[in-house]
């Protein structure tokens, strides 16, 4: 068990260093390609209610997808994390500027005083962030386990899709029993369906 945790920390450190090392031109180009692929993705186009995230620490930028989702009439949900309770609450946002506030660690999140909470059972497509992924859908996050707790609470029909840079993929993610898989990974180069 401890060996797996050590390996996860090593993978996390390695991939974060690679991701943080991207210059702004490379980051924007790759993020744009990922967003275009996601917008063209059939499950995205068919879904009415989508859980997205506000990008953090050079995660692939999802801002364009959020804005395009508004124009397509989709219900856009973003999470607010309660670290003490170790849980997510998903809130509907209608405006990236007016509905958001600075959250924990400088991450932008919905303002609960303005936005309405929406139960997880309405989510048709969930965009799941992470640090590293493998082609089986294995995922290493930041170590807090928030998404590992969220994924089992989503409806069985909800597609769990990661957006990631190609350099976030590793041959095999070290997994523990509580770690959860994603169904699909979209990178700037390809769409990977879980093997």
Automatic annotation (TrEMBL):
PANTHER family per the UniProt record, alphabetical: 5-FORMYLTETRAHYDROFOLATE CYCLO-LIGASE, ATPASE INHIBITOR/5-FORMYLTETRAHYDROFOLATE CYCLO-LIGASE
Source organism superkingdom: Bacteria
Coiled-coil boundaries: none
Residues given in the record as substrate binding sites: 59
GO terms for biological process, alphabetical: folic acid-containing compound biosynthetic process; tetrahydrofolate interconversion
InterPro entries given in the database record: FTHF_cligase, FTHF_cligase-like_sf, NagB/RpiA_transferase-like
Keyword Disulfide bond attributed: no
Listed cofactors: Mg(2+)
Enzyme class: ligase
Binding residues annotated for ATP, in chain numbering: 8-12, 139-147
Native organism taxonomy: Bacteria, Pseudomonadati, Thermodesulfobacteriota, Desulfobacteria, Desulfobacterales
GO terms of molecular function: 5-formyltetrahydrofolate cyclo-ligase activity; ATP binding; metal ion binding
The EC number(s) this enzyme carries: 6.3.3.2
Family: Belongs to the 5-formyltetrahydrofolate cyclo-ligase family.
NCBIfam families: MTHFS_bact
SUPFAM superfamilies (alphabetical): NagB/RpiA/CoA transferase-like (SSF100950)
Keyword terms: ATP-binding, Magnesium, Metal-binding, Nucleotide-binding
Designated name of the protein: 5-formyltetrahydrofolate cyclo-ligase
Catalysed reaction equations from the record: (6S)-5-formyl-5,6,7,8-tetrahydrofolate + ATP = (6R)-5,10-methenyltetrahydrofolate + ADP + phosphate
TM regions (residue ranges): none
Pfam families tied to this protein: 5-FTHF_cyc-lig
């Amino acid at each position: 068990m401890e060996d797996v945790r050590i390996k996860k920390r090593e993978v996390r450190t390695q991939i974060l260093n690679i991701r943080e090392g991207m210059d702004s031109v490379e980051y924007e180009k790759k993020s744009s390609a990922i967003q275009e692929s996601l917008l063209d993705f059939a499950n995205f186009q068919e879904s009415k209610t989508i859980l997205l995230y506000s990008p953090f620490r050079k995660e692939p930028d999802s801002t364009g997808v959020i804005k395009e989702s508004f124009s397509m009439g989709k219900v856009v949900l973003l999470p607010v994390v309660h670290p003490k309770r170790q849980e997510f609450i998903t809130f509907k946002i209608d405006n990236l500027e007016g509905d958001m506030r600075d959250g924990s660690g400088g991450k932008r999140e919905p303002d609960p005083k303005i936005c309405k909470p929406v139960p997880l059972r309405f989510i048709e497509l969930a965009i799941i962030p992470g640090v590293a992924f493998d082609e089986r859908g294995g995922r290493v996050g930041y170590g807090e386990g928030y998404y590992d707790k969220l994924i089992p609470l989503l409806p069985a029909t909800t597609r769990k899709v990661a957006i990631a840079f190609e350099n976030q993929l590793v041959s095999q993610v070290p997994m523990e029993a509580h770690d959860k898989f994603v169904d699909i990974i979209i990178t700037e180069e390809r769409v990977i369906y879980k093997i």
